[in-house]
Amino acid sequence: MKKIWKIRKDSEAVSPVIATILMVAITVVLAAVLYVMVMGFGGPSQQTPTGSFSTSQKLTANIEKVQFGVITPDTKPADVKIVITKNTVAWQSGVLPSGLTNVTLNYVGGSAAKLASGDYLSIAIGYVGTGVDTFSVTMVYVPTGNIIGAALSFTW
Q1: b or e along 47-78 (b: 16 or more beta carbons within 10 Å of the residue's beta carbon)?
Q2: pTM reported for the whole predicted model
Q3: Could you tell me if 30 and 63 lie in one domain?
Q4: Does 77 share its domain with 125?
Q5: Which of 16, 120, 135, 140 is 20 to 30 A away from residue 31, measured at CA?
């Protein structure tokens, strides 16, 4: 006896091999999406913190105390560069604007792990001036190079 194979018109199922491959592919894609969501895409964020200095106070004839305000998110002191400007001429390591003989910065704070409100900079300026000059202090976030908040100004 000869068997006659009839093709049914309502049989459009996927073969077991293709179905297995599709299930594995869907699982891999879902695992990749979850990994990206949990770990963050592209590594850690390089967003510049926000904050400012809160006050400035003259301690002695050549020392200014500049106090930090609230800076968020938490930022390490090592991630902040201080730029001092005298009458629009910026001081950075090794180059002094005219009239300045030296600049010494001392960070006074409770922790090397983060800047906190109340921490301050003691800025000693060797200064030969004629009249009143305006100084400003600016914080720069080193990883991005962007300025954190507004500069604080004082006059001598």
Answers
A1: ebbebebeebeeeeeeebbbbbbebeeebebe
A2: 0.63
A3: no
A4: yes
A5: 16
Please compute Rg for the chain using Cα positions: 31
In-domain check, residue 8: no
Q: Note down the domain range covering 28.
A: 14-43
Q: Please check whether residue 138 is in contact with residue 85, taking contact to mean a CB–CB distance below 8 angstroms.
A: yes
Count: domains in the chain:
2
Cα–Cα distance, 69 to 72 (Å, whole number) = 10
Q: What is the mean predicted confidence (pLDDT) over 20-34? A: 94
- How far apart are alpha carbons 100 and 91 in whole angstroms? 9
Q: Are strands 134-141 and 80-86 parallel, antiparallel or unpaired?
A: antiparallel
Q: Percent of the chain scored above 70 by pLDDT?
A: 77
CA angle 69, 55, 142 (to 5 degrees): 50
Q: Would residue 6 count as lying in a domain?
A: no
CATH number at 90 reads: 2.60.40
Is residue 75 located within the same domain as residue 112? yes
Structure tokens at 151: 């500069």
